[in-house]
């Protein structure tokens, strides 16, 4: 039985009132298009605007509405709850994904028309102990909308030549014989609030690294919208030889965490064992080929000579080994904090750990990492398609037009590797594995911020001993105690004091002055990300100051030390927040995550840290209005 409490009924009334017929949705000020729009320049200079209807999001602490007990068909219980409280026929909703993990449950639902999902209308619920703890939705009332019928749609092959030309990318469902696989039908709510019936296809350009999800009008062939699976990281770089870098490697042995990688790092998870840089979690490839070990004991002992340049001697092999080690270690650490098979992580074999759940994770989506990519100068990026399709990491060489300046390999910059891996984590965990829910300008900026924060955090973990050879040690190893020092990302690649960002990440406003209002004037997702990452830096520092620092953080996520709590909340909040979250919603998800796991014991610490950078209780998405206030119970 579903029980609707007064507070939740009030919320849903607000949702329904604010989501009248699509054409009646209010237009927002230009600066708030950050939260709902993202204009991309793709392919052959095609400017395409993606859109996500404004979302409503509510967290309930411990006072959420009762959802009832779950049986075998628990996903149907979630669907019925959502349908009843939206006042909609269950035929207008479709289960997308979900899972039960410990005492928590998570479900993602798509709005449908004519039984076909609406790509950019998503709801999500999280629950524990028979109660809903958070609810998000950007469903809309479509009763007055003109809706194309499925029979009007044409096959994607009708439009492919023009679409591939415009996107400068190839359709991925075409085999060696040229036969074309049919793209699925989905509706799409356009920025002008009209409804399009679209064919949805994936398009790749292996030379440029482009990886797009395109929504093609199934009637006219117009490219309605694109989701970009690539998190772009192209930088203006002037590498100068100002760092002291050691010229030797530290040898590590038996570094696998066999609890979370039970077959080790060099197995496909079944009966095949590799003596090269391939395994169940990662395939690290040097120009398309894995690097073989020097012997049958899987030893990889190539030296890296920094001054020799990235393409000389054994440097390319050493760089590939470093990538293999880094991504495997990140798999194992983040698994401990919740990025596991159920939560759409990257593995070729799931060891049956998702077999008891309705939403079964597709296998064979371990990371494919390409090292020494010739056409990726001054770039490092990851393409993160939906669950079941391998993410692809491209790692280029960083150089300048000054031929005397040393070139540096992004494969040896572990803060950059962590940044890219974190893009994979956040894109998979937000939105239930669809990789569609960090696509608006503001949400994409949050993604950049989480990636920088993860790079900072894992570096504080002292996880990768070899990195002492490639980083300025004052930034990489400094965060080993309750004293949180400033952090610079990309210092190895740039040789500059601020690295790849405008300011170091710091709790000192004189060192890093960014606050919430700076989002409104940001013209690049990385600039938005800097604001969020520095807020998270302040949250991290406050938690460590209040609760101390654990040295067993990468294998023990049960500690109550500040650094462990921070990483756990970062993971937990991903599963709670709505599709394409705003700053305010991401903050609220983190606070709710603290209630769910720790009973809210850190809430005031978190509130004060966010408020110190303008994201206090009165902060508003519309106009990016700052607030430095905290709840009265924290004063």
UniProtKB/TrEMBL annotation:
<dbReference type="Pfam" id="PF02128">
    <property type="entry name" value="Peptidase_M36"/>
</dbReference>
<dbReference type="GO" id="GO:0005615">
    <property type="term" value="C:extracellular space"/>
</dbReference>
<keyword id="KW-0732">Signal</keyword>
<feature type="binding site">
    <location>
        <position position="419"/>
    </location>
    <ligand>
        <name>Zn(2+)</name>
    </ligand>
</feature>
<dbReference type="InterPro" id="IPR050371">
    <property type="entry name" value="Fungal_virulence_M36"/>
</dbReference>
<keyword id="KW-0378">Hydrolase</keyword>
<feature type="binding site">
    <location>
        <position position="448"/>
    </location>
    <ligand>
        <name>Zn(2+)</name>
    </ligand>
</feature>
<feature type="binding site">
    <location>
        <position position="423"/>
    </location>
    <ligand>
        <name>Zn(2+)</name>
    </ligand>
</feature>
<dbReference type="GO" id="GO:0006508">
    <property type="term" value="P:proteolysis"/>
</dbReference>
<keyword id="KW-0865">Zymogen</keyword>
<dbReference type="InterPro" id="IPR027268">
    <property type="entry name" value="Peptidase_M4/M1_CTD_sf"/>
</dbReference>
<keyword id="KW-0482">Metalloprotease</keyword>
<feature type="signal peptide">
    <location>
        <begin position="1"/>
        <end position="24"/>
    </location>
</feature>
<feature type="binding site">
    <location>
        <position position="232"/>
    </location>
    <ligand>
        <name>Zn(2+)</name>
    </ligand>
</feature>
<dbReference type="GO" id="GO:0008270">
    <property type="term" value="F:zinc ion binding"/>
</dbReference>
<dbReference type="InterPro" id="IPR001842">
    <property type="entry name" value="Peptidase_M36"/>
</dbReference>
<keyword id="KW-0862">Zinc</keyword>
<comment type="similarity">
    <text>Belongs to the peptidase M36 family.</text>
</comment>
<feature type="active site">
    <location>
        <position position="420"/>
    </location>
</feature>
<protein>
    <recommendedName>
        <fullName>Extracellular metalloproteinase</fullName>
        <ecNumber>3.4.24.-</ecNumber>
    </recommendedName>
</protein>
<keyword id="KW-0479">Metal-binding</keyword>
<dbReference type="GO" id="GO:0004222">
    <property type="term" value="F:metalloendopeptidase activity"/>
</dbReference>
<keyword id="KW-0964">Secreted</keyword>
<keyword id="KW-0645">Protease</keyword>
């Amino acid at each position: 039985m579903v029980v609707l409490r007064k507070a939740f009924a009030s919320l849903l009334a607000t949702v329904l009132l604010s989501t009248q017929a699509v054409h009646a949705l209010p237009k927002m000020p230009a600066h708030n298009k950050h939260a709902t729009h993202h204009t991309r320049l793709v392919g052959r200079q095609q400017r395409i605007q993606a859109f996500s209807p404004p979302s409503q999001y509510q967290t309930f602490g411990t006072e959420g509405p009762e959802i009832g007990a779950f049986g075998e068909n628990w996903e149907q219980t979630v669907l019925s709850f959502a349908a009843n409280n939206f006042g909609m026929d269950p035929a207008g909703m479709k289960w997308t994904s979900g899972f039960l993990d410990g005492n928590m449950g998570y479900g993602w639902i798509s709005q449908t028309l004519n039984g076909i999902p609406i790509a950019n209308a998503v709801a999500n619920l999280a629950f524990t102990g028979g109660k809903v703890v958070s609810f998000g939705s950007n469903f809309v009332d479509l009763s007055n909308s003109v809706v194309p019928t499925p029979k009007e749609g044409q096959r994607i092959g009708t439009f492919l030549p023009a679409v591939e030309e415009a996107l400068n990318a190839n359709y991925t469902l075409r085999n060696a014989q040229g036969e074309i696989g049919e793209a699925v039908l989905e509706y799409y709510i356009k920025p002008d609030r009209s409804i399009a019936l679209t064919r949805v296809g994936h398009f790749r350009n292996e030379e440029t690294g482009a990886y797009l999800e395109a929504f093609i009008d199934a009637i006219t062939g117009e490219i309605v919208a694109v989701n970009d699976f690539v998190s772009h990281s192209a930088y203006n770089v002037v590498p100068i030889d100002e760092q002291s870098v050691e010229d030797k490697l530290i040898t590590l042995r038996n570094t696998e965490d066999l609890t979370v990688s039970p077959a080790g790092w060099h197995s496909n998870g079944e009966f095949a064992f590799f003596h090269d840089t391939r395994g169940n979690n990662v395939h690290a490839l040097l120009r398309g080929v894995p690097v073989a070990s020097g012997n049958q004991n899987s030893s990889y002992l190539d030296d890296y000579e920094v001054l020799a340049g990235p393409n000389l001697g054994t440097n390319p092999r050493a760089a590939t080994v470093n990538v293999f080690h880094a991504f495997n270690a990140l798999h194992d650490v983040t698994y401990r904090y919740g990025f596991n098979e159920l939560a759409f992580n990257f593995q070729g074999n799931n060891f049956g750990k998702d077999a008891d759940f309705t939403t079964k994770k597709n296998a064979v989506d371990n990371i494919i990492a390409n090292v020494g990519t010739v056409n990726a100068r001054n770039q490092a990026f990851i393409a993160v398609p939906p669950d079941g399709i391998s993410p692809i990491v491209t790692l280029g060489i960083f150089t300048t037009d000054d031929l005397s300046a040393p070139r540096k390999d992004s494969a040896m910059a572990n803060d950059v590797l962590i940044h890219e891996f974190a893009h994979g984590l956040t894109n998979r965990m937000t939105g239930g594995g669809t990789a569609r829910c960090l696509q608006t300008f503001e949400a994409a900026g949050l993604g950049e911020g989480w990636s920088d924060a993860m790079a900072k955090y894992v570096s504080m973990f002292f996880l990768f001993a070899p990195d002492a050879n490639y980083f300025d040690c004052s930034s990489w190893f400094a965060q080993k105690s309750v004293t949180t020092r400033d952090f610079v990302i990309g210092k190895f690649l740039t040789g500059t004091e601020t690295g790849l960002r405008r300011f170091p990440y710091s709790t000192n406003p004189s060192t890093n002055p960014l606050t919430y209002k700076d989002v409104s004037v940001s013209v690049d997702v990385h600039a938005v990300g800097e604001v969020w990452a520095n807020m998270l830096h302040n949250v991290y520092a406050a938690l460590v100051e209040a609760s101390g620092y654990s040295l067993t953080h990468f294998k023990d996520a049960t500690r109550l030390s500040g650094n462990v709590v921070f990483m756990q909340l970062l993971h937990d909040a991903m599963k709670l927040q709505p599709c394409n979250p705003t700053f305010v919603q991401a903050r609220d998800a983190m606070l709710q995550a603290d209630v769910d796991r720790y009973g809210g014991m850190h809430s005031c610490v978190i509130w004060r840290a966010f408020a110190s950078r303008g994201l206090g209780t009165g902060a508003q998405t519309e106009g990016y209005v700052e607030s430095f206030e905290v709840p009265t119970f924290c004063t």
